[in-house]
Amino acid sequence: MRFDMSRTPTLEDVAEAAGVSTATVSRCLNAPEKVVEETRRRVLEIVDTLGYSPNFSARALVAKRTQTIGAVIPTMENAIFAEGIQAFQDVLQERGFTLLIASSGYDPNAEGDAIRTLAARGADGLLLIGFDRDPKLYDFLATQSIPAVVAWSYSPGGPLPSVGFDNTGAMAGLVSHALDLGHVRIGVISGRQKGNDRAQGRVEGVRATLRAAGKPAPFIVETDYGIAEGGGALDRLLSEAPDVTLVICGNDVLAAGVIRRARECGLAVPQHISVTGFDDIALARLVDPELTTVQVPHRAMGEAAARAILALVSGDSVESLALPTSLCLRSSLAPPRER
Amino acid sequence: MRFDMSRTPTLEDVAEAAGVSTATVSRCLNAPEKVVEETRRRVLEIVDTLGYSPNFSARALVAKRTQTIGAVIPTMENAIFAEGIQAFQDVLQERGFTLLIASSGYDPNAEGDAIRTLAARGADGLLLIGFDRDPKLYDFLATQSIPAVVAWSYSPGGPLPSVGFDNTGAMAGLVSHALDLGHVRIGVISGRQKGNDRAQGRVEGVRATLRAAGKPAPFIVETDYGIAEGGGALDRLLSEAPDVTLVICGNDVLAAGVIRRARECGLAVPQHISVTGFDDIALARLVDPELTTVQVPHRAMGEAAARAILALVSGDSVESLALPTSLCLRSSLAPPRER
DNA sequence: GTGAAAGCGCTAACAG
DNA sequence: CTGTTAGCGCTTTCAC
């Protein structure tokens, strides 16, 4: 028996070589229990020697399942998504699913395109980050009946099940602690809030806590994501509110930039000014002083999100899940200096 | 005319609604110039109102092109890949291609599986990191005639075209400079070299330069990737070679760990001991003292790799491309203290 | 338990 | 310029 090596083998090649029908070969691969031991062994052997691997497109065309999950994330250049997505992917891979990643660059239109592209490619399910997007996209997913879950945010009554944490509550915890320490004049440096409910939630956590404690509203500066950007934001904050004793940052990267810039300005942290971050990425323990921040379970979230979408894809229903965060108290936060 | 909204529309639905054949609709989408203005307009209008979007699998099945590029990277949890891959993806997206990412976790078997999975999914081309892998995989790609390019390494005579830089040469430049400064007892902390030609090349750059200068061979410690790991490696290095005046690290992350650990041990950098990194990620300017390192053009490399694979996919041939690196001299490297 | 046959939705000759 | 037709490789009834 000879094989044409110049072409990748098809089901038919295997069937012919094994002396069975294509249906039987297909069954050996998809429902082995429906084929008698003897036949199965022979077929699988041929599959192996021929190096046969089913054509994905043909299979998807008829089966209407692709074993593919799509994820649309704002950017890959951010340690926090990278780690969570890696965990997400690890679980998918383990369960025989492939991850298709698209990034939106924080652009709502690009995100919409990405969602539609992924849908057109037959993604069995989708992972989205946060809830803040055009409601039409939720309709679209419903119409196409593509299951999806939201991660990095938690909202039990949202349009989609979510796996995340309470951004507002976590930030509130941090702020309460800072108030206990005696801080009153507080500045906030946040990433862009538009279309980003994580940023919105965190800022709201600060606002609400100060309001509840009867303290003055915080000064808020918004900036793009990045270390240098954090430094620039500090400059703007201090020019508007030179007497703040605490700068609360929306994430660790901005906080790292603030700490660096403070040092350049001769402002001692935390003696002159305290700084806090959010996320607890590796960076937090690298800067000097080490960063007081909110620890977020990235890997656990990625894994839980993967389990959630896989459950949805196989027809099970899932509950939204809030993961716990915790306060990491380190040396960048101290009581304000007496004045 | 009524449409069944419960089903995603097919080519046939569009054809029927427009009163033309499916072939004409297909042409409107794939070769508009072959259809007369009037017909095209009408068809495209229906496409729009129906919200028709071609079924990816069906198209791939017959066209044998998927407009998909696969990338197999060691890990996403590494700023250097993240940034380069983001650039890679940006270019692909712009040209209408989708990126499929798989990560191998630095495991050669997992990498082989990922390559085969991507191939089975009909990736039109592949991006691989580095050259060091089972030669059978190159045969596999050749047999399946799947074009591929290697990034992060440069080797003009390699089995695949590459877009990268000269790891060995770049490190040699750094070491030469350190020798000029007067360092003699030199330690190296490298990531795992097995299957990682970037790490191998960098270590070789140190070895070769010292050899050529008639200096003693360096002490080499190998470790997993990570900040804490860098610190642990410093402990091991110092226990074996307590008198090193310079620790050359294979990447910035390890170097950051070394600097932190040195501070914990009461070793002043660079007064007691100099430290260098490689990659020049944002981290390099965050640690104190700032890191002397080798600047690598991540984005340019990602973009060039994208152009290369797209050229191959469309049948053009490409030349391997070496991108320039440069030395970033910062304060973590200084002449050794007199003893 | 296995085979025959009918498509899945689309593209690409080939006619007209 | 447009329609007809023949599959692409696979899964899945429906018979046997």
3D architecture notes:
The structure is a homodimer of 339-residue chains. Chain A has 339 residues and is α/β, with parallel strands linked by helices. Helices cover 45% and strands 15% of the residues of chain A. A 6-stranded parallel sheet of chain A has the order 2-1-3-4-5-11, sandwiched between helices. The first copy, chain A, is elongated, with a radius of gyration of 26 Å. The model of chain A has no long low-confidence stretch (mean pLDDT 92). At the A-B interface, helix 4, helix 5, strand 2, helix 6 and helix 11 of A face helix 4, helix 5, strand 2, helix 6 and helix 11 of B. Chain A binds a DNA duplex (16 and 16 nucleotides) through helix 2 and helix 4.
List keywords for this structure.
homodimer, about 350 residues, 6-stranded parallel β-sheet, about 45% helix, DNA-binding
